[in-house]
């Protein structure tokens, strides 16, 4: 049997995106407490995400968000990585408060933020090892949150994934 790369590319990208999800899950976490949530967006849900992000960009007058909305239509998959908010009670003061008990409502625990960053790095390193094109996009995560796709998560980051001749997520023109 002969397989043409173009015929199996999409299936390969989806399998690689699943490996990215595993990398995010197994990334180190503060105190070993796993507050990370990971999801995979494909097919018509990418269109829904794009349309939502475009509307947000229009409403906010943010051309960069509309550019991202158009740009994710070049993705074959989008990995969403999020964190639930829960203070780690380390009194590290990285959030700006002397103790976790003094942290104002709405100020994220720095350890949760660091954990999501490590998970994103692990997922993107996996993608790079598998020669996939990616870009970390806060805007995509914001739109996913507005859609309610990751309940209980306040901070969501989207990573569009592609396997093409040139990374479609760079050298992008900002929309006016």
Low-confidence stretches: none
User: Considering DSSP H and I runs of 4 or more, what fraction of the residues is helical?
Assistant: 40-55%
Helix count from the secondary structure assignment: 5
CATH architecture: 3-Layer(aba) Sandwich
Which class best fits the helix and strand makeup?
A: alpha+beta
Q: Tell me the number of strands.
A: 4
**What would CATH call the class?**
Alpha Beta
Strand arrangement within the widest β-sheet reads: 1-2-4-3
Give the overall pLDDT as a whole number. Answer: 94
**Gross morphology:** globular
Q: Tell me the distance between the termini.
A: 49 Å
Q: How many individual domains?
A: 1
SSE order:
HEHHEHEHE
Task: Describe the protein.
- The chain has a four-stranded antiparallel β-sheet, with helices on both faces.
- The protein is α+β, with helices and mostly antiparallel strands and 176 residues long.
- The radius of gyration is 17 Å and the shape is globular.
- It has five helices and four strands; from the N terminus they run H-E-H-H-E-H-E-H-E.
- It has one domain: NADH Oxidase.
Provide keyphrases for this structure.
176 residues; alpha+beta; NADH Oxidase; 4-stranded antiparallel β-sheet; 15% strand
């Amino acid at each position: 049997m002969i397989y043409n790369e173009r015929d199996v590319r999409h299936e390969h990208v989806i399998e690689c995106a699943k490996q990215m999800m595993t990398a995010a899950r197994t990334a180190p976490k503060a105190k070993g407490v796993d507050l990370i949530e990971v999801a995979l967006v494909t097919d018509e849900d990418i269109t829904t995400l794009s349309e939502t992000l475009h509307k947000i960009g229009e409403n906010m007058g943010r051309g960069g968000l509309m550019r991202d909305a158009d740009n994710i239509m070049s993705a074959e998959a989008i990995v969403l990585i999020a964190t639930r908010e829960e203070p780690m009670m380390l009194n590290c003061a990285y959030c700006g408060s002397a103790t976790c008990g003094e942290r104002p409502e709405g100020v994220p625990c720095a350890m949760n933020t660091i954990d999501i960053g490590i998970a994103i790095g692990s997922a993107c390193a996996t993608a790079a090892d598998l020669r996939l094109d990616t870009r970390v996009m806060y805007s995509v995560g914001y739109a996913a949150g507005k859609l309610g796709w990751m309940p209980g998560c306040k901070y969501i980051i989207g990573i569009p994934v592609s396997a093409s001749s040139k990374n479609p997520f760079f050298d992008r023109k900002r929309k006016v």
